[in-house]
Amino acid sequence: MAEFKVHQLEGMQHVEIHLDDESVRAEAGALHFMTGDITIYSRVFPSLISVIKSLLADEAVFRPIYTGTGVITLECSLGGYHILDLHGESWILERGSYWASDGDVDVSFHREPVFTSLLAGEGLIFLQTRVSGHGKVALTTRGPVKHVTLNSGQSMLVEGPSVIARTLDVGFKMRRPTKNLLGFVTSGEGWLRAYEGPGTILVTPRPYWRYWILVERRGEVDLPSKITF
């Protein structure tokens, strides 16, 4: 399998991928530079269904495949990156979190129920990227990632899309912050995202200071992270 490394330089992070006669897949436009004997293959005419699903999931329609031997360096970000190692399980990724993956990792889509989608503010159709199989997946994140393991029946309530990934067996639904309706109105909180075990979730408790200052406070654009956050 390809070797994924996250490097930090001048307050920014980037992903470096080492190939040894291997293949990886990445978001369109993610390449910064590469060295070695590597070829790039990208479909010219994707199916209409795949185009619609990609647009609804806020993901790139095209994900080029890099094959060969050498080193690929992807674009840097004011946020950060997290390398997820798959061992045969499936993960659901928050919109915009996918950045790159091993060639053997299956990349598809997962759809949430319509009612959950509406309460989450995602419209009638809430599609998220699903990754399965064996290999590594690079995720974009606005801050440090915390692994949280939920036991059966244990739940975690989160405001907004702070959970960037969850295992397939983790339940997801929207929940009021209070049991009584009047309390919901006066609490000052909106609908919360409820994740119920068993399973594992990846949470970003806080953004990197540089991301918070330059992107969230000033509204600047950071391409690798802007969709997720």
Q: How would you sum up this structure, described in words?
A:
With 229 residues, this protein is mainly beta. It has a single domain (3-217), classed as Double-stranded beta-helix, CATH 3.60.160.10. 13% of the residues lie in helices and 49% in strands. The protein is built from four helices and 14 strands. It has helices at 48-56, 114-119, 181-186, 209-217; strands spanning 3-9, 12-26, 31-41, 65-74, 80-93, 98-102, 106-111, 127-141, 146-150, 155-158, 163-167, 171-175, 192-196, 199-203. Strands 1, 2, 3, 4, 5, 6, 7, 8, 9, 11 and 14 form an eleven-stranded antiparallel sheet that branches. β1 (3-9) and β2 form a beta hairpin. The protein is globular and about 60 Å long.
Structural class, judged by helices and strands?
A: mainly beta
The CATH class is identified as: Alpha Beta
Which bin fits the share of residues in helices?
A: 10-25%
Mean pLDDT: 82
Please identify the oligomeric state: single chain
What gap, in angstroms, lies between the N and C termini?
A: 30 Å
| Spans where pLDDT lies below 50 across 5 or more residues | 225-229
Secondary-structure element order, N to C = EEEHEEEEHEEEEEHEEH
Total count of strands = 14
- What fraction of residues sit in β-strands? over 45%
Task: Specify the overall morphology.
Answer: globular
* CATH topology-level name: Double-stranded beta-helix
Largest sheet: 11 strands, antiparallel
How many domains would you count in the coordinates? 1
CATH superfamily: Mitochondrial biogenesis AIM24
Give the second-level CATH assignment, the architecture: 4-Layer Sandwich
The Rg value, from CA coordinates, equals 18 Å
User: Count of helical segments?
Assistant: 4
